[in-house]
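Long-time lurker. I teach an intro course on protein structure, and each term I like to show students one example going from raw sequence to a predicted 3D structure in token notation. This year I'd like something fresh instead of my usual example. Would anyone be willing to generate the tokens for the chain below so I can use it in lecture? Attribution to the forum is fine with me.
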Amino acid sequence: MLFLLRLVARLPLPLLHALGAVLGWIVYFCSPRYRRDFKRNLATAGLSDFRLRYAAVAEAGKSATEVPVVWLRPLGRVVGLVVEVNGWEYLENGAKRGKGVIVVTPHIGCWEMVGQYVASRMPITVMYSPPKIRALEPLMRIGRGRGSAMKSVPADLRGVRAMLKALRRGEAIGVLPDQVPGVGEGEWVEFFGRPAYTMTLVGRISEQTGAPVLLCCAVRLLRGRYRFIAEPMLVPRPPESPLRALNRSLEQLIRRHPEQYLWGYNRYKVPAGVLPPGAR
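-- Reply from a regular --
Happy to contribute to a lecture. Here you go:
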């Protein structure tokens, strides 16, 4: 499989994005559950326009076919695909404080590009969970482990300790904040008006280390190019909790680029062992 994916990575990215758009629609029509979650999540956010759904289905497919490019092309060529950068000064200023920077990257655009781009300019440690398709794990390790500036750590206690050490060195760490965490690792917090089990890790680490939390994403542009965006997390509005402020920050970013968010992800599922919202 790795050999095949290396061949795929050589294809022009605009072609892969076109193929990804087709793939997105194939998955959408072939999976009733995926289609149901896609429509429901868009409706929950008040985004039911068919044109937006049409674009979002295609963009979801692109997120799959661009991965071989991001993980397997030479790092210099990968980061060269980023032709616009907004807000990098927030990462620089955070690093100058000496407490590191917490980069939170929701499933918008090419989230794999964020870690690669940051690693090209400062060291970053990213947390990962093994992919459902086990055969893809070696590829993931290759893509996220190129060079000494980017390190991948497992989503467990060892990984948390490694990230804390990275912050103490004044480096960056990367977390996907809209993944559904495991039992005991989250709280039910409103996300687009509906309770979603939200990870508490980001807030705990920020409180413990004093590291600023920055939202970062790499949105797709035309012709296989990207715009890197970084911005601070919104400040909680009393009596709003920091977790709700995190989700509100994500909502704000998603509403600016709704067609590139991964709406098919079941963000509102109840993890095994977790009581549903409102249950005692």
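Some talking points for your students: The chain has a mean pLDDT of 92. The CA atoms of residues 20 and 32 lie 19 Å apart.
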